[in-house]
Amino acid sequence: MNTPTPSNPQVARKGSGEMFDAIAARYDRLNAVISFGQHASWRHRLVAALRPAWGQLDEVLDLATGTADVAIEIAKTYRARVVGVDPSEGMMVVGREKVARHGLSEQVCLIDGDAQDLPFDDQRFDACCIAFGIRNVPDRPKALAEMRRVTRPGGVVAVLELAQPTGNGLALLARAHIKFVMPILGGLLSSKEEYDYLRESIAAFPKPEAFCQLMREAGLVRVAAKPYSFGALQLFTSRVE
Ligand SMILES: C[S@@+](CC[C@H](N)C(=O)[O-])C[C@H]1O[C@@H](n2cnc3c(N)ncnc32)[C@H](O)[C@@H]1O
User: Which helix (H) or strand (E) holds 200?
Assistant: First the structure.
């Protein structure tokens, strides 16, 4: 029977926690290689965008926290408490080890959960973000509505996601990188299914303006999209009213 289980990851829904359980041990290496080492600076832009008008963040929610790189950077940058949520226990095992190595176990807590149904009170967090995770969430409007619900008024809700570079010139090179170079590098470190999923899910992700519209429909305001790396990366920012 084709029931996705942690012990049977080949049939796990693509992008699900079970799929990430299967690649957790390789995930950080895969990320570094596929992004040509740019992933840290990409996450850095997301973390910088979370700063609120009132300056200080006390508690932040990091959805699809995975191996906790974003959570760790938020905790260090703002000296904030961070709750990371992810359905993949395997990713969070790697993440918790990293959190401990950075001496942040008192500040950063990683818990099992789904971005579509958050176990938190309304307006609990000063900011909420998701990096390279919204692509994997089946009901994106629901997840965006949840992000808005749990963030206090004035707080930033931010989404970092891979995208299809558009345009000519260097964007052509970036497209060639995704089409020809990433499959080779990705194939060396992950299975064909996992790699195909990455490529297909990037291609299927809504165009920036369409995703901004989803954010507005979720009740978020001051929505903006900023492309980086010739459009291979989009940073979406917004505020809660
Ligand atoms: C590509 S990883 C990103 C991890 C991390 N944010 C980073 O920057 O490296 C995507 C993560 O999304 C998680 N995920 C999948 N479905 C999810 C859902 N419904 N809610 C929250 N996270 C989810 C996966 O388990 C995985 O850890």
Answer: helix 192-204
Atom of ligand 1 nearest to the CA of 20: 25
Say if ligand 1 is within 6 A of residue 132 CB.
yes
Q: What pLDDT digit, counting tens, does each position of 64-83 carry?
A: 999 999 999 999 999 999 99
Taking CA atoms only, the protein residue closest to ligand 1 atom 23 is 64
- Phi-psi label, residue 154: left if phi above 0, alpha if psi -120 to 50, beta otherwise: left
Helix (H, G, I), strand (E, B) or coil at 67: coil
CB neighbour class for 201 (10 Å; exposed up to 12, middle 13-18, buried from 19): middle
pLDDT, tens digit, 9 for 90 and up, residues 103-155: 999 999 999 999 999 999 999 999 999 999 999 999 999 999 999 999 999 99
- Centroid of ligand 1 to alpha carbon of 34 (angstroms): 17
Residue 180 CA, ligand 1 centroid: distance in Å: 25
Q: What is the pTM of this model?
A: 0.91
Domains of the chain: residue spans and CATH: 9-239 (3.40.50.150)
